[in-house]
Amino acid sequence: MPRQTKLSTAQSEPSPPLREEDRQRARAQALLKTLRSSPNAKAVNEARALVLQLRNLRDFELMGRLAEALCRVDPADARTRRLYAQGLIETGSAIAAIDMLRQSLAKLPKQHEEAIEAWGLLGRAHKQIFFDAADGSSAGARLALAAAVQAYQQPYKADPKKNTWHGVNLLALVSRARREGWSEIAPRLDPAKLAAELLTNLRAVPAKARDEWYLPTLAEVTLGLGLSTGDLGPVESLLREYLGAKDVQAFQVASTLRQFTEVWGLEQLTTRTPGVALQGATGVQRARGLVDVLRARLLQLPGGELALPAMQVSLPSAPVARGVSGRARAAAPRAAAADRSQLEAILGVEGPQTFAWWRAGVDAARSVAVVRQRLGKRLGSGFLVRGGDFGLLPADELLLLTNFHVVNAHGAAPGIRPEEAEVVFEADDPGKAYAVKSLVWTSPVDQHDASLLRLQSLPVGIPALPVSSLLPDLPGPEVKKRPRVYIIGYPGGRELSFSFQDNELLDHEGPPAGQPQIPGVVRVHYHAPTEGGNSGSPVFDDSGWKVIALHHKGGRFGMPRLNGQSGTYAANEGLALATLVAAVKATAL
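Above: the chain's sequence. Below: its structure in token form.
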């Protein structure tokens, strides 16, 4: 349980120095200005290296802007164009990426290194279109899958010993096509023979020539063999080596997780799945547990962020990957999570505890809703609280807390009036919207930026989130590790998401050392990857998933420091729940 701050001085401790990833982002912003005004060779070379670093940080939005600026300076640079295309895919613009990649392929020699990479990304773009399809069995989805297979097959056939990562994607997609019953896609390819060939070629790669993608690729090939033979021991051993490597990155693990869930569909496996030889329900559960292992490791890594499809939260024991066909989804029974022994065998003794903590966060996510205009644009997030926690009667009534700038009495921009708003608890039922009945309490943007809403009706079985009256301790200057905070919401109005890493508590204006600038308002600053749709999200402590603040704004750069400190930094800002509670109680008296 968080403890109250006990600093002995009247001043809060200095905020931590800028982190390496924030320095990279700040440098990217500076390079953007240089490339747009007075580009030079030094800035171009530095920006090229930084584009790759931003990709590894999974900051695809900033990566895309920097790549765009580079392409304007040097439109013939194939590597930058390829990385730009990758950023487009990651941010949902697959068609634009396909056009860019095809233009590059038309200009590059067939054996050029960038041509090989471009073919792979072309396959990645078509693959994403397949998995984004609402109906995975539609003609359009089938065409996308066939196009992805063709794109990966091109470089693999040209050099199967070198282009193994194209081969493993080819293996995964052909296996998926066979599972779906689409025998017309690459009819001459036998997944079992392809897997054996890939394994031989990978094992033959000299140790000195193995790059950071060697183990992820080998693990996926071994998974393909394991599913066809029923023996998952080899893939578990490889995951232990891969995920335990000191230099493993979130971008790699996220890619493997996407492959295991979307392409291989491990969470939809049954004992009757075509081409799968797992031994009974125990074998199926063991295969599904591999996904839990990857999720648990991802949340331990810097930049490790997980998007939570609504089905994954509502049925946390049987998450469903996006893009799985309705036929496969209906056939997938509910399954237990990875057992403790499997998590511990691969991730060590901390694995089960880490995963259990994450699952508690998934449960908390069920109480977070998206706030939107009726049948229209998504504006922000909100979460259920208990009226009694705010001194209101009836005490057990559930209310929705969001920002004033999301919903307010007069519809002051960018918000809307209560009668125009509706909320959806996507983890409960993404098709059910709840109208707002009334505005119970509100405080403007320059105060608490908060609104308490009473809904016309409520979903059954979703509890209020527990509210904390205390803020976590701020560590002294000799302590390097700072408390963490976590945000659950709808970034950019997309699906329910939260991040487990890089979420440090930076500073707050709480007692006894805080110096609130606004009377009666305590602000909290923290690192967290947030976007506009996160407005109104709960900010949780790092132990018991209690809400300590209401998120209302943030900025990568230029946020003024708290408690009389000079300068700005990269930070997000929330309003302490304790002061919101006090303000509501004062109004109710």
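The CA atoms of residues 55 and 263 lie 22 Å apart.
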